[in-house]
Write a structure and sequence with these properties.
The protein has 247 residues and is α/β, with parallel strands linked by helices. It has one domain: Rossmann fold (3-Layer(aba) Sandwich). The chain is 30% helix and 18% strand. The protein contains 7 helices and 10 strands. The strands form 2 sheets. Strands 1-10-9-6-2-3-5 form a 7-stranded parallel sheet, sandwiched between helices. It has a 3-stranded antiparallel sheet with strand order 4-8-7. α1 packs across α2. The longest helix has 23 residues. It is globular and about 40 Å long. It starts with a strand and ends in an 11-residue tail after the last strand. The mean pLDDT is 95.
């Protein structure tokens, strides 16, 4: 990952990340007649999604959208549900809807990973939107992340730092209410994306950004693996970049 762009604030970060994403989707449709994308959730994606759904010139009927992860045992109506998040912030604003393949954590999680793995198998993924957690996780691949599995979706256990972040961002009424398991896209599946657009903001992510960009490439810093991806662009704001070495 050599393309790191520090923007003035979250609003500009969101505009530029969405602009690159929209350009990539339009180019994929022009080249292949369709686009396959992965959309992310969480506070880091608010501004990006707001700009993406307003982008002009995208034929969303030719787009298939997967998403990164979902909690096990959480209903879509729960405020923290990522399916609900994407319905509200991604699908609802679009007049023409993409084909959306949700991660459903309400039933048997192993059966759900098998369903998703069959649906994504062999697909070219043109674009993956993503963020980085406070613990440097990528999707819900908390440290130590599995860098080896070839399965596209896996069931994972969420560590305490990850669960504290979800509580701290206000998605749950208590730490105890945060589920302990989730279905997550695997690291290797994310790395198969032709372009990865990372949006990372706020000072609470500064250590994770430093670990991802300047620390050892290690399962203990899951997002560090993106340094081995040939086409990742990271958009960050000054607080998130505050611990990076100058120059």
């Amino acid at each position: 990952m050599k393309d790191i762009r520090i923007l003035a604030d979250k609003q500009e970060l969101g505009r530029q990340a969405a602009a690159l994403g929209a350009q990539t989707i339009r180019a994929a449709i022009a080249r292949h007649g369709e686009a396959n994308i992965i959309v992310a959730t969480g506070a880091s994606q608010f501004e990006m999604l707001q700009n993406l759904v307003a982008a002009e010139g995208i034929d969303w009927s030719k787009v298939t959208a997967f998403h990164l992860d979902e909690y096990v045992g959480l209903s879509e109506s729960h405020p923290a549900s990522f399916r609900g998040y994407l319905e509200e912030r991604f699908l609802a604003p679009l007049a023409v809807k993409p084909a959306f393949i949700p991660v459903n954590g309400e039933g048997d999680p192993v059966a759900e990973t098998e369903r998703l793995n069959a649906l994504i198998a062999g697909r070219r993924i043109d674009l993956c939107f993503a963020g980085i957690g406070e613990n440097c996780h990528l999707a819900f691949n908390d440290p130590p992340a599995d860098f080896e599995t070839e399965k596209p979706y896996i069931v994972v256990t969420l560590d305490e730092a990850c669960r504290n972040q979800q509580f701290g961002e206000g998605w749950f009424e208590s730490l105890q209410a945060v589920p302990e398991r989730a279905i997550s896209m695997s690291v290797r599946q994310i790395l198969k994306s032709e372009l990865i657009v990372l949006s990372v903001s706020d000072a609470r992510k500064a250590k994770a950004v430093r670990d991802a960009l300047e620390g050892e490439i290690s399962p203990l810093h899951p997002a560090s693996i993106l340094r081995q991806h040939p086409n990742t662009v990271m958009f960050i704001d000054p607080p998130a970049a505050s611990l990076l070495k100058q120059g």
